[in-house]
Amino acid sequence: MFGDFMMGARSRLLPASVPFRFFATAVVLHAAAWATLLWAGDAVPGFIGGGGPALAALHLITLGVLAMVAMGAAYQLLPVATKRPVRSVTACKVSHGLMAPGVVLLSFGFATMQTWALHGGMALTVLGVGVFAVLIADNLRRVTDLPLVTGHAWLAVVSLVAVLVLGALLATDFGAGFLTDRPALAAAHAVAGGFGFMGMLAVGFSYVLVPMFALAQLPRKPYGLWALWLSAAALASGFAGALSGIAVLDGLGITAGLAAAGLYLEMMRLTLKSRMRRGLGLSFVLVRAAWVGLPLSLVAAAVVATGWRLDITAPLFGFLLIYGWLLTFLMGVLQRIMPFLASMHSFRPGGKPVLVSALTADLPLKIHAACHFAALLLVAAGIVSEIGWLVRLGALAGLVGALSFAAFAFSLRQRLIAHLLSFPPVSATELRSP
User: Fold this and answer.
1) DSSP letter string, 180-202
2) Which of 40, 154, 230, 375 is a Cys-bridge partner for 54, taking CB atoms 3.0 to 4.6 Å apart?
3) Are the CB atoms for 54 and 48 separated by under 8 Å?
4) DSSP letters along 311-365, please?
């Protein structure tokens, strides 16, 4: 898998400005999300819907960090993995140009309940993510191999359509009140967005990124394909159950989801068991913690489906899903993707690319990891105990961690620039040469 992925990879790289504009935006909004959660504080325990800073913090994470990282990574990694170029680099830039201000405006609208900002931000966000969906679907339809990657990516694209439709309806309903069962649509929106769009991209990219970073081969087992079909069944059943309120469908979806998660985690365990790189570093501490968060979020979903203490179990489920699994996984992966891509882009004729290790500042990442885990524990404790100051303390730890991660990203940029300036200027013809 690693050799297939890397063969000719440099020739399929997009301009560095494409993925890194998404990553840079995510790094900034990561800090903004924790700061907004710090502001929300007392509103987080017992939060089961409605507007305000708690909803703004949630969407800064889901759209501003998770979706932003997923878009930047998908634009670069899918063409490399599938050996099919993205249709339009300009369209990639347009999607960011719509998405970035859209997320900021939408989050401002949620925080302040200004309908003009909410509706305008939703329109820009839907357009930006819509462009992304079209580009990725165009890439996927030209691929017949890599079933684990493309299969999960197709599930993500289908889920994304549901997310956009339901999100637009929910945002438009603020101030209008035309929806008759808003909680059901919000639940379906959460299933499609968390487990569907982001969850399937995280799982699908794992089958490329984990072998690549661990120098390993995927095991020759059918578990991944079984997990793919179970994931499709889980999403369909869970989505239908959330919309209809039929508990049996919820139960079937959660059961299928747990089975799919178990098979996926077994594939990851076998992959890491066969790895050639023994020390996987701090990033895989986060990744492994996220793998624990995946089944925990499904168990929490099962408790929510029973209707027991929704004032505690519902926000805890959302926090475990978004922050415990997805954010933890994405931050672990991002700290490997950014130096890796920067190293790939550092090649110049007559020289060698800078080593990934030379681009990575370790101390900020250690601070980020410690603060991130502290934030997870403190906010979860605050939700369970219904103590707002614990949530604020956790959000403060998360903010310090996010600022430390931003310091890592800034250091990477400065180290890459210093490396590039060490080479004499080259012509455009030389840069295009193999």
Assistant:
1) S-HHHHHHHHHIIIIIIIIHHHH
2) 40
3) no
4) HHHHHHHHHIIIIIIIIHHHHHHHHHHHHHHHHHHT--TTS-PPPHHHH--HHHH
* pLDDT over 60 (residue 10): no
Token pair of 81 as six digits:
């993995």
Give the number of other Cβ atoms within 10 Å of residue 132's Cβ.
Answer: 26
3-state helix, strand, coil in the chain (%, to 5): 80, 0, 20
Mean pLDDT of 130-142: 91
Whether this prediction's pTM lies above 0.85 is answered by yes
Residue 10 DSSP code: G
Q: Return the higher-pLDDT residue of 36 and 15.
A: 36
Q: Using CA atoms, how far apart are residues 111 and 56, in angstroms rounded to an integer?
A: 5
Q: What confidence tens digit (pLDDT) does each residue in 39-75 have?
A: 998 999 999 888 899 999 999 999 999 999 999 999 9
Closest CA to 252 of 273, 233, 272, 266: 233
The stretch 277-304 carries a mean pLDDT of 94
Per-residue pLDDT at 12:
64
- The whole-angstrom separation of Cα 155 and Cα 133 is 12
What local confidence, expressed as pLDDT, does residue 176 receive?
A: 76
- Closest Cα to residue 72, out of 147, 8, 13? 13
Residue 58 near residue 322, CB atoms below 8 Å: yes
Block residue for tokens 């009140």: 177
Please choose, from the candidates 12, 59, 72, 52, the residue with its C-alpha nearest in 3D space to the C-alpha of residue 32.
59
Contact 59, 99 (CB under 8 A): no
